[in-house]
């Protein structure tokens, strides 16, 4: 992946995360992206918790889904009419609770087919403690429209 495309995709991904109502509501922020890799942060927000500041599992699942999707989008130009993408499946395994803290998720592509992309996503706290692990199956298709 050339550096110009990486930077262009990073800028587009960052903007999408910032303006997408759901990710903004949850408090997601794009931290890093490279070929086949994405890293997002979920900022601690009291409204995303259950009892005693424990982060709700749905917020973690959403972070895993979004991180896997962003890793998949490193293989195509996001936010152009040329491509369309959507999540096909998400599997999440919760390993430890996140209590009153930010969560980081790192997604890596395991395999890229013609349309289907398999990603592994690991969610940790700032200290690197593994909180959840998930797989995201994402589909990106070319729409045969010219880039805009």
Report on this structure.
The structure is a single chain. The protein is α+β, with helices and mostly antiparallel strands and 148 residues long. It has a single domain (3-142), classed as Hotdog Thioesterase (Thiol Ester Dehydrase, Chain A, Roll). The chain contains 3 helices and 6 strands. A 6-stranded antiparallel β-sheet has the order 1-2-4-5-6-3. The radius of gyration is 15 Å and the shape is globular.
Provide a concise account of the structure shown:
It contains 3 helices and 6 strands.
Blueprint (SSEs and pairs):
Elements: H1 3-19, H2 21-26, E1 28-34, E2 37-42, H3 57-73, E3 83-94, E4 103-112, E5 116-124, E6 130-142
Antiparallel strand pairs: 1-2, 2-4, 3-6, 4-5, 5-6
Number of DSSP E strands: 6
Shape: globular
Can you tell me the number of structural domains? 1
Mean pLDDT: 93
- Highest CATH level, the class: Alpha Beta
Radius of gyration of CA atoms, rounded to a whole number? 15 Å
Distance between the terminal alpha carbons, to the nearest Å?
A: 20 Å
Helix/sheet category: alpha+beta
Count of DSSP helices? 3
- In the sheet with the most strands, the strands line up as 1-2-4-5-6-3
Binned strand content = 35-45%
Order of helices and strands: HHEEHEEEE
Residues in helix, %: 25-40%
Kindly identify the CATH topology: Thiol Ester Dehydrase, Chain A
CATH level-4 homologous superfamily: Hotdog Thioesterase
Task: State the CATH architecture.
Answer: Roll
Runs with pLDDT <50, length 5+?
none
Largest sheet: 6 strands, antiparallel
